[in-house]
Specification:
By secondary structure, the chain is an alpha+beta fold. It has helices at about 55-60, 100-115, 120-125, 125-145, and strands at about 5-15, 20-30, 35-40, 50-55, 70-75, 85-90, 95-100. It contains four helices and seven strands, in the order ββββαβββααα. The protein has a seven-stranded antiparallel beta sheet, with helices on both faces.
Length: about 140
């Protein structure tokens, strides 16, 4: 069984109401971290930026406005298949994206074959995930210092 699912799609980066451009986005899912999906955004002239958020949030956002805090996902219209609006926020900074629902559904279907929704606790490695997260934080601090 594959423990990692990857996909790439183009999303519209919504700079303003009048300006948007397409960017490649890598989607990643790992059975070792079964609750999360990762999106890596490749913006021209910038280093790639990765966001991790709940797989269930992505699934819910395909059909109904979802999310609290830094990540919000909602369908553009109520008639399926709809494009999806994704808003990511850190403090006062905000980035908005539009993605087709079909490739996101296909990606989620593939993740469900690796770890079925609702069965994540069977696959979760809480201690390993915590150790990996701590290692990433410490490495980032060492590199920044």
């Amino acid at each position: 069984m594959r423990d990692t699912i990857q996909a790439e799609l183009l999303m519209s980066f919504l700079v303003s109401d009048e300006l948007s451009f397409r960017i490649p986005v890598e989607l990643r899912y790992e059975a070792a971290d079964p609750y999360a999906v990762r999106f890596t955004f490749h913006l021209p002239g910038d280093a790639p930026v990765t966001w991790a958020f709940a797989r269930e949030l992505l699934l819910d956002g395909l059909s109904t406005p979802s999310g609290d805090g830094d990540v919000h996902i909602r369908p553009i219209s109520q008639r399926p298949p709809s494009d999806v609006f994704i808003r990511l926020q850190v403090g006062a900074e905000c980035a908005a994206f539009r993605a087709g629902a079909a490739p996101l559904v296909a990606f989620l279907n593939r993740t469900d074959r690796v770890v079925p929704l609702g069965k994540e606790e069977w696959y979760a490695d809480s201690d390993g995930s915590l150790d990996a997260a701590l290692d990433r934080i410490l490495a980032t601090e060492r590199n920044a210092g």
